[in-house]
């Protein structure tokens, strides 16, 4: 029996664990033909899981293995802040463009509001940032300090050790990069579960990966799916 285009797309989707970006059009066809939780699981595996593992989690683990506690925490937390902004924009299906007006055409031109609202509105981060004021402190003194100054501001210290420190302590000004990484992974578990049946999140996911695909297509390694 001849396979339909959707069936071929789904079969191709299943056969390779690392299809994005090259196979994104094929993945979209499969999702259009079958928006079941199982098909969305495959999309997540192909587009999100591999991306995070190769670009973020594996490199973080490589840095962390030294366990010298002589500055690697700054680099790890900087990467984690990058992950948080991606997750925040992914949840909305928005894309960054310098100078863009907030929310117009699914774009944003500044990350502060996006970052702060994400921390306050989504568990497990919202357990630690119950008010926007606390999230703004993290954004300004930690995220922006690390990204723009290569250090934290206002006396904040980056620590490691899940059993020794909370994720963040506003009195002692300590942020625990191990606990922060655990929070990212816990969020991803919840997000993955929600994505399987939430139409709004699904449409946001497709908008975001459409944009990533459009930029990846300009890269020299695109033909190889790299």
SSE layout and pairing:
Elements: H1 5-15, H2 24-33, H3 37-64, H4 72-92, E1 95-96, E2 107-108, H5 112-121, H6 125-128, H7 132-149, E3 157-159, E4 168-169, E5 174-176, H8 177-195, H9 199-216
Parallel strand pairs: 1-2, 3-5
Antiparallel strand pairs: 4-5
Helix pairs in contact: 1-2, 2-3, 3-4, 4-5, 4-8, 4-9, 5-7
The low-confidence parts are: 1-17
Enumerate the strands of the largest sheet in spatial order, edge to edge or round the barrel. Answer: 3-5-4
Strand content: 5-15%
How many DSSP H or I helices? 9
SSE pattern? HHHHEEHHHEEEHH
Give the overall shape, derived from the CA principal axes.
globular
The assigned structural class equals mainly alpha
Helical proportion, percent range: 55-70%
Number of β-strand runs: 5
The chain-level mean pLDDT equals 88
Distance from N terminus to C terminus (CA atoms, Å) equals: 34 Å
**Any idea what the radius of gyration is?**
19 Å
Main β-sheet description: 3 strands, mixed
What are the key terms here?
3-stranded mixed beta sheet, 5 strands, 226 residues, disordered N terminus, mainly alpha, 62% helix
Would you give an account of this structure?
This protein is mainly α and 226 residues long. The protein contains nine helices and five strands. It has helices at 5-15, 24-33, 37-64, 72-92, 112-121, 125-128, 132-149, 177-195, 199-216; strands at 95-96, 107-108, 157-159, 168-169, 174-176. A three-stranded mixed sheet has the order 3-5-4. The chain has a two-stranded parallel ribbon with strand order 1-2. The longest helix is centred in the N-terminal third of the chain and has 28 residues, at 37-64. The chain is globular and about 55 Å long. It starts with a helix and ends in a 10-residue tail after the last helix.
């Amino acid at each position: 029996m001849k396979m339909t285009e959707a069936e071929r797309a789904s079969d191709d989707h299943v056969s390779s664990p690392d299809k994005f970006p090259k196979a994104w059009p094929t993945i979209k066809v499969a999702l259009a033909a079958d928006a079941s939780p199982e098909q969305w699981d495959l999309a997540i595996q192909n587009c999100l899981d591999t991306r995070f593992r190769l670009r973020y989690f594996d490199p973080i683990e490589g840095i962390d293995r030294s366990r010298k506690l002589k500055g690697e925490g700054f680099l790890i937390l900087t990467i984690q802040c990058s992950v948080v902004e991606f997750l925040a924009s992914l949840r909305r299906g928005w894309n960054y463009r310098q100078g863009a007006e907030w929310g117009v055409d699914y774009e944003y031109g500044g990350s502060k509001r996006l970052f702060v609202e994400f921390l306050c509105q989504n568990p497990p981060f919202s357990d630690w940032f119950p008010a926007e004021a606390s999230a703004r402190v993290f954004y300004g003194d930690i995220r922006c300090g690390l990204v723009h100054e290569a250090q934290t501001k206002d006396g904040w210290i980056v620590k490691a050790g899940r059993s020794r420190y909370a994720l963040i302590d506003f009195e002692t000004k300590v942020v625990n990069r191990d606990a922060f990484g655990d929070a990212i992974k816990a969020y991803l578990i919840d997000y993955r579960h929600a994505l399987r049946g939430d139409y709004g999140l699904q449409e946001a996911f497709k908008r975001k990966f459409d944009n990533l695909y459009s930029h990846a297509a300009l890269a020299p390694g695109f033909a190889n799916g790299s």
